[in-house]
Automatic annotation (TrEMBL):
InterPro entries: Flavin_Rdtase-like_dom, NADH-dep_flavin_reductase, Split_barrel_FMN-bd, WH-like_DNA-bd_sf, WH_DNA-bd_sf. This is p-hydroxyphenylacetate hydroxylase C1:reductase component. Keywords: Oxidoreductase. PANTHER family: FLAVIN REDUCTASE, FLAVIN-DEPENDENT MONOOXYGENASE, REDUCTASE SUBUNIT HSAB. It comes from the Bacteria. It holds the Pfam family Flavin_Reduct. The keyword Oxidoreductase applies. Its EC number is 1.14.13.3. Residues 30-173 form the Flavin reductase like domain. It comes from Acinetobacter baylyi (strain ATCC 33305 / BD413 / ADP1). GO terms for molecular function: FMN binding; riboflavin reductase (NADPH) activity.
Length: 324
């Protein structure tokens, strides 16, 4: 471990010393602890709004429901957090890297062009996050060169999106650990599929889809898009639907889910309504292409042990079943 030894003659005897850690090495070591990424927001009585990107968020207590985070004492935003009666913890989803970067930089109005609602005590709730917590200011404690702000959670929203992570100075995403990727085969002799049931094509197809999705869905969700949103992006990028009626058939989702997903994607600037159907923006096309790369990489991984001819035959059989 790197450190520097210093002696403060005003506070110590000749035989005493303090070991001071190397700040850079200390920061790198802390970087091994992967954290979620949040944006803390608040508004004071005068209407001044502040928002800062932070990964120091943590839970403190369940009863009462307390959380904490810390802010640099030199931060110009601290004054508003100190004055406000409430603040919000906005846990970012996997596709909100741009928002994280925006609130990490100094700017006159970080909220310009950002979608948000107001909560308790005029706290600011950012949209499309993995989760939001409305907090009443509970206490502020001094902690070295930071202020530790403790909040009592008065309301929260769990949106079920995969969170954005931060590890070793870089953004990351959550995926199941490889050790959890175990195929459980029914007990039996021979090929492990005894009995009449395991010769039933319908059963085999549905089980195959479940097994394929079990490993694919987490990878897709790590992008920050819900399944309905991802499916819409992929279908619209492929241009297989030229009307809203055809779109519903292609995505195979209820109208209400399509309406909710398109509203969210439109708010993010990924698509727009042409009247007849929806069309992707340049940003939406980039998002769809990212999702296709995830899908293609997974497909390559799953079917790697099969020959090209076997894969083509399998796809041909599936297309025949679908009626393509």
């Amino acid at each position: 471990m790197k450190y520097t030894r210093i002696v403060n003659m005003n506070m110590m005897t000749q035989d005493q010393s303090i070991e001071v850690l190397d700040p850079k090495a200390f920061r790198r070591a802390l970087g091994n602890f992967a954290t979620g990424v949040t944006i803390m927001t608040a508004q004071n009585a005068e209407g001044e709004r502040v928002g800062v990107t932070a990964n120091s968020f943590n839970s403190v207590s369940l009863d009462p429901a307390l959380i904490l985070w810390s802010i640099d004492k030199n931060s110009s935003s601290f004054k508003v957090f100190e004055q406000a009666t409430h603040f919000s913890v906005n846990v970012l989803s996997g596709n909100q890297i741009d928002l994280s970067n925006k609130f990490a930089r100094r700017s006159e109005d970080k909220f310009a062009g950002t979608d948000f609602d107001h909560g308790e005590g005029q706290c600011i709730l950012l949209k499309q996050c993995a989760a939001n917590f409305e907090c009443e200011k509970f206490n502020i404690v001094e902690g070295g060169d930071h202020w530790i702000i403790i909040g009592r959670v008065v309301r929260f929203y769990d949106h079920g999106r995969s969170p954005l992570l931060y590890h070793q100075g870089a953004y990351s995403s959550v995926l199941p650990h490889p050790s959890l990727d175990r195929k459980e085969i029914a007990a039996g002799e021979g090929d492990g599929f005894p009995g009449r049931l395991y010769h039933n094509m319908y059963y085999l197809l549905t089980q195959a889809v479940r097994a394929y999705q079990a490993n694919y869905h987490p990878k897709q969700l790590a992008s920050g898009f819900r399944t309905s949103e991802a499916r819409l992006l992929l279908v619209l990028e492929s241009k297989t639907a030229t009307s809203k009626c055809e779109l519903q058939r292609e995505v195979a989702m209820p109208v209400v889910e399509i309406e909710q997903a398109t509203e969210i994607l439109a708010q993010k600037g990924l698509l727009f309504d042409t009247g007849e159907c929806y069309e992707l923006t340049e940003q939406g096309i980039e998002a769809a292409q990212m999702l296709y790369r995830i899908a293609e990489n997974h497909q390559q991984e799953i079917f790697e042990k099969y020959s090209t001819d076997e894969r083509e035959l399998f796809k041909s059989m599936l297309k025949d079943l679908i009626g393509i």
